[in-house]
Design goal:
The protein is α/β, with parallel strands linked by helices. It contains 13 helices and 22 strands. Helix 2 packs antiparallel against helix 4. It binds nicotinamide-adenine-dinucleotide (NAD). Belongs to the aldehyde dehydrogenase family.
Length: 475
């Protein structure tokens, strides 16, 4: 059977053993753009056996050569950027310009992982006695099982491929079934560059079925996941049962502190763009806007102006500033949070509704007068919704900002250097923007604090999650 979005197992693009498929939907139209193949246990067994062979083969390739192949894959991906971006927009909804940027960022990750491969080294330690010395070696950790989401369907997989392949590991990735084409384009570039066929696999399936089979599988040595905190806890528990190391990149609920000394219109111009990027479906998205009372009215007015004027539409239209949400499920989740806030007394100053009767569009939304008990102040909105929370007491604001289980990113807008330092030091988050909102370039280690996860991805540490250490005492 031929299927639009096949599995990749041992170098073969193919359907699953029982030909199970799932429709892939264009979120801008609701139309089916194709089907994705779903894997059975027999398929996963094949992927595991191939990955063990792939590990032996790939880890024997010198790190310099691995680096060269990853650089080549990055170049192939760059050359394919237009097609890959179009695929991404069709399956995920984001504007084409954002999709293009994501493909290029994915290529940068592959290249960065390859460059770091060239710097793999061990060290020698003096023994306690003259005749003794200790050698510390780094080795690829083994077969990696990776689970990646739909919001950045290529970049979040590329980070894991870059680290795992750079370190010399083979990798089986289960991307989201809702956005299969982007991971497929990534894998095609890797194969095209000459990464051994057995070293990479792409499997789709029923997520819980696949993860509960791969995590305890004897061949798998490392689990890496990007997604929601509840699913992260599930996978980390399963990994704990078999004592396998895990990297968890989970959700955020970023406090965004706008202080009274800034130009509120300028801050709103900058933050509206950050808020509505990828329709707010970004773990680093600004989500709780703590605005100092003296600039609250002007900041809110400008945000409302932007929300009303923002051009929402099909991501393929070059005029579009914001695409649809990725799925009907996300429209329901975002609507529920906004309705809950409204029911509890919040004012919907802009948006607050689904747009049109085709596709999964939701209006850019600004909420004011949001009561403490509103669910949106505790649950990550993962949508184009900005609750504005006035403050005048910095200490109380900080307590609220730090008061959730999330610890991914936080933003501070002020020109006052002392205040920048005070707030930066007090915020319990893994990434801070000062007069800035963070994205994730490959040369930076990103990792959440608290329940936003553990471990980091990227930076000069990009290979570490995929390495194990052996020390050898020589006498
Ligand atoms: P969800 O919790 O149902 O799924 C999140 C991701 O995990 C999806 O890609 C899904 O395919 C996968 N998944 C679900 N159950 C799994 C299992 N048992 N084993 C393996 N993978 C599994 O949520 P959703 O509706 O898809 O996304 C909404 C929430 O997810 C958001 O609120 C956000 O918190 C979170 N999220 C975070 C990121 C991130 O970058 N950290 C990315 C996407 C989603």
């Amino acid at each position: 059977m031929s299927v639009t979005f096949p599995l990749l197992i041992d170098g073969r693009w193919r359907a699953g053993a029982r030909d199970r498929i799932l429709a892939v939907i264009n979120p801008a139209t609701g139309d089916r753009i194709g089907d994705v193949a779903l894997a059975e246990r027999a398929d996963l067994d094949e992927a595991l056996a191939a990955a063990e062979r792939g590990l032996a083969e790939w880890s024997a390739v010198s790190p310099w050569q691995r680096g060269a192949l990853l650089k080549k894959a990055a170049d192939l991906l760059r050359a394919d950027a237009e097609d890959a971006a179009r695929t991404m927009t069709l399956e995920q909804g984001k504007p084409l310009a954002e999709a293009r940027a994501e493909v290029l960022r994915s290529a940068d990750f592959l290249e960065w992982g390859g460059e770091e491969a060239r710097r793999i080294s061990g060290r020698m330690i003096q023994g306690r006695e003259a005749a003794q010395s200790i050698q510390v070696e780094t080795h690829p950790i083994g077969v990696v099982a990776a689970f990646t989401p739909w919001n950045f369907p290529m970049a979040l997989a590329a980070k894991k491929f870059a680290g795992a392949l750079g370190a010399g590991c083979s990798i089986i990735c289960k991307p989201s079934e809702e956005t299969p084409g982007s991971a497929i384009a990534l894998a095609r570039a890797l194969l095209g560059a000459g990464v051994p066929q057995a070293a990479i696999a792409i499997v789709f399936g029923e997520p819980a079925e696949v993860s509960s089979y791969l995590i305890p599988a004897r061949a798998v040595a490392k689990i890496t996941f990007t997604g929601s905190i509840p699913v992260g806890k599930l996978l980390a528990s399963a990994a704990g049962q078999v004592m396998k190391p895990v990297t968890m990149e989970l959700g955020g609920h970023a406090p965004t502190i706008v202080c009274g000394d800034v130009d509120p219109e300028k801050a709103a111009d900058f933050l509206a763009r950050a808020k509505f990027a990828n329709s707010g479906q970004i773990c680093l998205s600004p989500t709780r806007f703590f605005v100092e009372e003296s600039v609250r009215a002007r900041f809110t007015a400008r945000m409302v102006e932007h929300a009303r004027a923002w051009r929402v539409g099909d991501g393929l239209d070059p005029q579009t500033q914001m695409g649809p949400l990725a799925s009907e499920r996300r429209v329901e989740a975002v609507s529920k949070l906004v309705e809950d806030a409204r029911d509890r007394g919040a004012i919907v100053a802009a948006g607050g509704e689904r747009l049109g009767n085709r596709g999964f569009f939701y209006a850019p939304t600004i909420l004011t007068d949001v009561p403490d008990e509103a669910a949106i102040l505790r649950e990550e909105p993962f949508g184009p919704v900005a609750p504005i929370l006035p403050f005048s007491d910095e200490e109380a604001m900080l307590a609220a900002a730090n008061g959730l289980e999330f610890g991914l990113s936080a933003y501070v807008f002020t020109g006052d250097a002392a205040r920048q330092k005070r707030l930066k030091d007090a915020l319990q988050f893994g990434a801070i923007g000062i007069n800035d909102v963070v994205s994730h370039p490959p040369d930076v280690p990103l990792g959440g604090w608290k329940e936003s996860g553990y471990g980091t991805e990227g930076g000069i540490e990009i290979l570490e999650p995929y390495q194990k250490v052996k020390f050898v005492s020589l006498r």
